[in-house]
Amino acid sequence: MKTPFYYYDMALLDSTLAVLTEHAKQNDVAVHYALKANNHPRILQKIAARGMGADCVSGGEIAAALAAGVAPASIFFAGVGKRDEEILLALQSGIGAFVVESAAELFNIEQLARANGCIAPVLLRLNPEVDAHTHSHITTGLAENKFGLAPDDALALMPHLIQSDALSWRGLHFHIGSQIREAAVFEALCHKVNHLLSLFRTIGYSPEIVDLGGGLGINYAEPQSESIPNFAAYIQRFRMLIEANGARLHIEPGRSVVAQCGSLITQVLYIKEGKTKTFAIVDASMTDLVRPALYEAHHQIQLVRPDNWTIPASPVPIAMRPYDIVGPVCESSDVFERDLLMPELKRGDYLAIRSAGAYGAVMASSYNMRPLAESLFSDER
Question: Does pTM top 0.85 for this prediction?
Answer without folding.
Answer: yes
